[in-house]
Specification:
heterodimer; A: 115 residues; mainly beta; seven-stranded mixed sheet; four-stranded antiparallel sheet; 0% helix; 55% strand; B: 114 residues; six-stranded mixed sheet; five-stranded antiparallel sheet; 11 strands; 52% strand
Chain lengths: 115, 114
């Protein structure tokens, strides 16, 4: 079945630095990527949607200059948290969808801790 | 109109029992209804999904029941096992649109006790 590989699984960074999270679709072409943020004991909150080769569409309230999303190829999307602060600490999850495919495949998530 | 309401918030079921989680939606354009299982520290994993042209779908111990007129769907886990203890999310989307997002329910924390 479809697999999405997300790295790193966890990262600790200092306040003010930037962190990049990668998601790769291993056996299908991900025409659309979704990036989510999840707080403890809560549902997934969609941050942005990106189509290959296009600028990402951000949900209301998500700072596009802080959460940079790149979807340069059909198998790779990245989320960069710029100038991270402790309040950015969270669980970030990507999801990928192929062309004409109803399924959404999720990555394993990245636990970001900003100290 | 984009909401998906999920209940209960938490559920405790004895081993061997039936776990039932319910979801209701408003948007009649939704045509894809998946259920996801999430363990702590992991991403959601697709459990089972249904399209509105059928009223029930079964895969092993997991069954989705779908009521189009009532705009409700539910997950039944038969012979519940301790390994089923996880958080379950229902979701819905307009699946035929390639870049359409999933709308998630609020989640149900399921605990199976011996």
């Amino acid at each position: 079945g479809a697999v999405v590989s997300q790295h790193p699984s966890w990262v600790i960074c200092k306040s003010g630095t930037s962190v990049k999270i990668e998601c790769r679709s291993l056996d299908f072409q991900a025409t659309t990527m979704f990036w989510y943020r999840q707080f403890p004991k809560q549902s997934l909150m969609l941050m942005a949607t990106s189509n290959e080769g296009s600028k990402a569409t951000y949900e209301q309230g998500v700072e596009k200059d802080k959460f940079l999303i790149n979807h340069a190829s059909l198998t790779l999307s990245t989320l960069t948290v710029t100038s991270a602060h402790p309040e950015d600490s969270s669980f970030y999850i990507c999801s990928a969808r192929g062309h004409l495919n109803y399924g959404y495949t999720f990555g394993s998530g990245t636990r970001l801790t900003v100290v | 109109q984009q909401q998906v309401k999920q209940s209960p918030q938490s559920l405790i079921v004895q081993k061997g029992g039936i776990s039932i989680i319910n979801c209701a939606y408003e948007n009649t354009a939704f045509d894809y209804f998946p259920w996801y299982q999430q363990f702590p520290g992991k991403g959601p994993a697709l459990l089972i999904a249904i399209r509105p042209d059928v009223s029930e779908k079964k895969e092993g111990r997991f069954t989705i029941s779908f009521n189009k007129s009532a705009k409700q769907f539910s997950l039944h886990i038969m012979d519940s096992q301790p390994g089923d203890s996880a958080t379950y999310f229902c979701a819905a989307s307009i699946g035929r649109r390639g870049n359409e997002k999933l709308t998630f329910g609020t989640g149900t924390r399921l605990t199976i006790i011996p």
